[in-house]
Structure formats: structure tokens, C-alpha cells
């Protein structure tokens, strides 16, 4: 199995399916897979004892109501935090082990989490079923360089030349910018700039990369983007996207 095996579109569950489970928890990931997600999107920070811990936020304020940073607590302490529904924080290693057939889209959220993430992925022999991304080129490269051949998507600065080439119809620029990338993962628009159009999707795909759009929760938007030709959608409602895909693809 590799990260981009299987039929498209990719149904990428943003932090799992958190309708009746805390986001980024083992229960949320289980709910997403049971609802038909093809991929799990998640985020990692580093705990005080150097473990890659699954968490979108750098602190516990929003999800646990505590004024403390993830990096100030050890992994055993984080596991004991009550997130609801019997869930605590889990490590990347635990998630990879709990779902050995699942494909994980992993956002490296801080510099300290890069090395622990590499360790967890290696230990699980999961290099083929993960994709590494980050808003920071340096953080992304720190992991990708340690895992040769792992799937990856560009940071904002790395994607900009590709988008310029796609918008202007300069195919060699887009190909050069996307060399080595399995996918680009972008919002449909950024302020006044519309990133995802039928033209940009075709140009990026012609350069050898898939187009995944985040974070899309409205059914109408999902349909419109699928009609544009995107390869995957990152969503908080993988159940809704799965139902739409099932009606469109026999």
C-alpha cells in the first residue's frame, strides 16, 4: 500500500470525524474510517519528553480548557487529559499502530516534532502510507530528508511558483516547482486569489501532482470542486463527502 493507492477522489478526514468524538483522537479516526474516509488528516507537536503527539493546537486551551502548552507535558500526562468520550491525547506512534492499514496525512506543526515524527513513522514501518506536509519548508524538509521517497506536499513558499506557472500557462515552471511532490494541498482561495480553478487543476495534474482542497464541509462546494476535477477533499464531514461520492461513482 502507498499513500495514493486506490480510486479517487480521496476522502481525507480532517482530524478524523469529530461529530461524537474529540478531534484528532483515536475514536475520531475510527469514526472517520467507519464512515468511509480513505485518508486521515492529522497534526503533530512534540511533548515534553520528546514524543510526537497528535494535536492541532500548540496548547490545551481550546480542546481541554487548560492554560498549558502541549510541549510542557509528557506523553503520559497528555494521555490522562480528559478530552471527552473516554479519550485523551494520543501519540503518532499509537495512531499508526492502532490503524495499521490507514493512510495518514501528517502536518508537522513545530520544529521539535520533526525528529519524533520520523522515529514513529520508521518504527511503524509506515513510510509508504503517510504524506508529510507543513506550512514551513524547513519543518517539512527535516522529515522528508530523513524518510527518502515518502510522499509530500509543498509548503506555501514552494507552491507559489507552481501556481504562477499554472495561472500563466507556463507548464515547465509548474513541472519544475512540483518535482518530487505527490500532491498539492491548498484552500480553494486565499483572500481575493482563487487558487483552485479547472485550469490550475489541469496544470498541476499535468505536472504529476494531485490536487487536494481543504477544508470543505458544504455539500454544494464538494460537488462543485469534484466537478472541477480535484483529486481529493479535506473535510470535517467525511460522512457527507462519502455519500456524495457514492452517488456519483457506481
TrEMBL record:
Stretches assigned to the GP-PDE domain: 9-245
Domain of life: Bacteria
InterPro entries per record: GP_PDE_dom (IPR030395), PLC-like_Pdiesterase_TIM-brl (IPR017946)
Any one Pfam family match given in the protein's UniProt record, by short name: GDPD
Record-level Gene Ontology MF annotations: phosphoric diester hydrolase activity
Gene Ontology biological-process annotations: lipid metabolic process
PANTHER family recorded: GLYCEROPHOSPHORYL DIESTER PHOSPHODIESTERASE, GP-PDE DOMAIN-CONTAINING PROTEIN
Annotated protein name in UniProt: Glycerophosphodiester phosphodiesterase
Source organism per UniProt: Leifsonia sp. NPDC080035
